[in-house]
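Reminder: ligand-aware prediction takes two inputs, not one.
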Amino acid sequence: MIDHPLIRHKLSYIRDKNTSHKDFRQLLDEISTLMAFEVTRGLPTEKVTVQTPLEKTVAERISGKKLAVVAILRAGLGMVDGVLKLAPLAKVGHIGLYRDPKSLQAVQYYEKLPDDIGNRFVILADPMLATGHSAVKAVNILKEYGVKKLVLMSLIAAPEGVKEMHKHHPDVKIYLAALDKKLNSHSYILPGLGDAGDRLFGTR
Ligand code: URA
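Here is what comes back for the chain with uracil:
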């Protein structure tokens, strides 16, 4: 859980059904930047010598694995730019999944990932961790590409989704701004914020 007054404040607006899609998009972007600050806290650094205008000094730069942000379509798109503000050289991948109405399982319809994804530290972005089926499927796909180090960054989760992720991928750390009560009978998070994709793009 990433607990910060700014995140709690912005969450209160993003949950509000009267918030416009323009403001929703901006808030998701801002919260994503704040979350990315915490998600990237453990990145390894290495010492480098730099020449300031006055003298040489030893400083630190991110070493080893470089970053990739992978958005689960569609709502994950709303978190990408927020991360890129802090890590502008990160590469961006996309995974498209839809929920099969009968089985309720996540079915893949699109995938475009950086060539070297297997060597990158991957931040998987999906604002709503509801049943967990999409996140589990996306992590399966990323692991097939050899990704070793990945985390899931979600805005709001239901306990059911967290449980499902822990069951299938206990090695994947989950970063959240809020852990909500439960899912309703249509697998929406309560209290949640409604359909993140629709609210982000103004489609409903
Ligand atoms: N996806 C959403 O956009 N909202 C939910 O509450 C659950 C899944």
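The pocket of uracil is lined by residues 75, 128, 130, 188-189, 192, 195-197 (CB under 6 Å). The longest strand covers residues 91-99. We will return to this case in the review session.
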